[in-house]
Amino acid sequence: MKHKDGKPINQPNKNRTVTLAVTFIALCGFSFYLGGIFCSGKDSVVVNNIQMALDSPKESSGSLQVKPISFPECSLDYQDYTPCTDPRRWRKYGMYRLTLLERHCPSVFERKECLVPPPDGYKPPIRWPKSRDECWYRNVPYDWINNQKSDQHWLRKEGEKFLFPGGGTMFPDGVGEYVDLMQDLIPEMKDGTVRTAIDTGCGVASWGGDLLDRGILTISLAPRDNHEAQVQFALERGIPAVLGVISTQRLPFPSNSFDMAHCSRCLIPWTEFGGIYLMEIHRILRPGGFWILSGPPVNYERRWRGWNTTIEDQRSDYEKLQELLTSMCFKLYNKKDDIAVWQKAKDNHCYEKLARESYPAKCDDSIEPDSGWYTPLRACFVVPDPKYKKSGLTYMPKWPERLLAAPERITTVHGSSTSTFSHDNGKWKKRIQHYKKLLPELGTDKVRNVMDMNTVYGAFAAALINDPLWVMNVVSSYAPNTLPVVFDRGLIGILHDWCEAFSTYPRTYDLLHLDGLFSAESHRCEMKHVLLEMDRILRPAGHAIIRESVYFVDAIATIGKGMRWVCRKENTEYGVDKEKILICQKKLWHSSNNGSR
Known about the structure:
By secondary structure, the protein is an alpha/beta fold. Among the domains are: 172-391, Vaccinia Virus protein VP39 (Rossmann fold, 3-Layer(aba) Sandwich); 403-586, Rossmann fold, CATH 3.40.50. Helices cover 28% and strands 18% of the residues. The strands form 4 sheets. Strands 6-5-4-7-8-10-9 form a 7-stranded mixed sheet, with helices on both faces. One of its GO terms (biological process) is methylation. Belongs to the methyltransferase superfamily. GO terms for molecular function: methyltransferase activity. It is a single-pass type II membrane protein. InterPro entries: Put_SAM_MeTrfase, SAM-dependent_MTases_sf.
């Protein structure tokens, strides 16, 4: 080809252009690959590499190896250490809305890598059901409640024990009569309609303890504050409880979880800050569920003189509360003496009638209703999804039929169905039979407080339902959120990230169970930190059942030995080569360390 002036034109070499293009693309791809290798542990390339190591026959014959380590003892002043609610760190956070009592976990560089000691004189806990009425003083050696609440009969010290008479601020003469009156006001507490409850500001959990005999499973919630060790007392008694406070973050539960919520003079300012705390109760309460309030401003006509206030102020507070509840489609269900009961709307008819400009506002579609892990509270209330009508209390199967009925909300979990739910139940029934052969204590009064550290549908807990224990079902905040399914079947649980410490005191669980937790989370969470946290919350002489890939089992056993655990390796019920079970026991030891660490 020639230019218009007759000079030849140099044509580009097409082959050379193609070669350069291919080379450029290859270099880009290679650099992307290298970036994937060296990027954060959260990236999929690292996850895939770990999974390849687990699945490859060549690698499965080997295992992860770690150097033997012996962890030192923490000093005795860490005997009640709660890393994410540590009073030593309160000064870093403000008093506004009590944010200092929320979770504030230490950084990786501040974590304690030592073994939390028991108090001097610690003894194996008293067994259930006797433990509901008494515990060893040296196991929870705190006198504040005994000194400050003696007239309300929360507890009293006699000799080497604390005794729990069953009293409380609003029921000093005993929780039994208090709950009897409550059942008269809410007949649904008697027939299996009400199964799950939450007690905000629980004291020593006498309300939740009484409900256990009535077939109602309660999570008792209280912060770590000047009421020394409320949650620790509850768990020492064998009653489900967690550390928590309604402040600036949502509670770690999905929406529509609880059939009933209770506040007995819990000092939560329900009508302040635009009613944001009551909006959170509305979120976690199931449609048709009940909210119970005893104490100010209920029965203000008779009680106001003892509340250091005026009858006009209390009347105003009650009217504000009633107005706020009505604006969120609660209705007054029943009321007698010091107890008032409101019921959340059973369906969406009331919400549909609310004006768009109504106050408080309804949350828009951008607000995820089931998010509960470090999710800020917002000044709006969540309207239940009308698609899930059968998740309302009125339409659900009653307990105990509810336990094995596939919940409607299982369809919200990717890859889940009624058949996968049924298969999971059958699988765990067989596994529990095998576990009881490996650990004969399981199913006896030696095991009361149990945690399933990474549950899916709660089938582990369901298979143990007839044993004298309760199970805290933990769903990873990084896994698909199956916790609505757990609550819908009448069990209790909580969202958590095992890269952080759990919201409980030391020595509060008899048995920890995990199924493939390290296979799923080792790319994010350092193994030794997870195991040290397990050691913190496990009672001396308690056990851990660790079901894991053979790739991780030896490393777990090595770290366990450094924590003074005794572990043995067992086959699964199927005898597969790729998976093993570790049965580990934490030994009782007493501190020899008076220094700080």
